[in-house]
Amino acid sequence: MTSSARPSRHPWAVLILLSAAQFMVTLDVTVANVALPSIGEALGFAPGDLQWVITAYVLVAGGLLLLGGRAADLLGRRRVFLAGLLLFAAASLAAGLAASPAALVGARAAQGIGAALLTPAALSIVATTYSGERRTRALSVWGAVGSAGAAAGLLLGGMLTTWLGWEWVFLVNVPVGVLVAVLVARLVPATPPAPAERRRLDPLGAVSLVAGLGALIWAIEGAAQHGWGSSRTTLLLALSGASLAGFAAIERRVPRPLVPPRTWRMRPVVAGAAVMLAGTGILVGAFFLGSLLLQDVLGASALETGLAFLPVAVAIGLAAHAASHLLPRAGSRAVAAVGLALMAVATALLSRAGAGAAYAGDLLPGLLVLGAGAGLVFPAASVAAMGDATHEDAGLASGLLTTAHETGAALGVAVLSAVAAAGGAGTTLAPDHGFLVAAHVAGGIALLALLLLPSVRPAGAARVAMH
Predict the structure, then answer these.
(1) Residue 230: inside a domain, yes or no?
(2) Quick count: other Cβ atoms within 10 Å of Cβ 155?
(3) What is the CB-side half-sphere exposure of residue 258 using CA atoms within 13 A?
(4) Single pTM value for the model
(5) Which of 84, 357, 437, 443 could lock 353 by a disulfide, CB 3.0 to 4.6 Å apart?
(6) Is residue 379 one of the residues assigned to a domain?
(7) Which bin fits 460, alpha (ψ -120 to 50), beta or left (φ > 0)?
(8) Structural domains of the chain, count
């Protein structure tokens, strides 16, 4: 691996700082979930528009992550990371001070832009700072931080909403972001930008991708109310297909595409991203359904809901630690498949919890198994996708991987909430229906992982064994 950047004298401090930023970004996928009732009441959101507090963030972040990864490769990883982090902090301040629904949704979209810049830049710094066994451990930590952040967001959201008010689910990012930015500027070596003739981005491709994903999610989220055969749903699905087809056409013609055609021949990257998308969709969708079950069905408060998910974060951390030891022996294929199978078991268990469910007996076992499965899946997917990435392709691979993560979150909530709405009566949702569908999806993806995911068995220098 070649690089003109000087190596950091504090490599593990660098990992801690970058992981802190990633934790903050993934936290924001779920931190606002338990605050939504308070936000809706305070700002006067229409019930059908409240979900855009979540969707605006994950949609913009997911759609622009490839552009962020490309920018990190061409403009310098540290520079892009710091720009994204400072934008994220500023947008978090605007979100906390928002006085109207439009202002809050706009600030959440700006947070998504910041996340789209800092996340792939941070992951590519991780992938190029470490090698061999250290890279395996660093990527395992990275995968665990991402999934634990999503779980901890529910707890932190409940605590902040109850004790300080909904505004602080966003304002808490401001001091953390500024502190991390100052320390990263001091500790992370700068990487030189690419030559001027190569510094071409693909904004038109990024816009078409965001438009396609946005139309798809909008169609799915409204299908339960308007019907899958309605003109609204049909029009949105057609718009999504046209936008995504336009994205594919643009990528074949522009000189510096976001996704070069050769990307689809990079089997480890594509397969790892697919597993990441599925795993994130199931996990974040399960968080959404679980929060709904606890608050709307079982009558839990925001703080009680957050505390109920604390064991998930613990299980994720323990399983991710185990994954760092299992990956060199069993390989990413087996570890990912076992993790997805555990997620299938977990969501099947959660589907059996009804109106009279008890937390300890009916919910906790499923939540613990869910966390254990996620803690295996995300490190395995990260190692499969990034374990053999070259220095030149690190930004592209990380951008595709993190795009899958954010897009999976948006699609998971949209699909499982649509299923729950279809299985409910009137305005009442049926979380058990969503959990059951999630169980079938996780089981199917586990089988596909066994067939299609390359087995990366890192030991010393990372190596890939494809069968």
Answers:
(1) no
(2) 22
(3) 25
(4) 0.79
(5) 357
(6) yes
(7) left
(8) 1
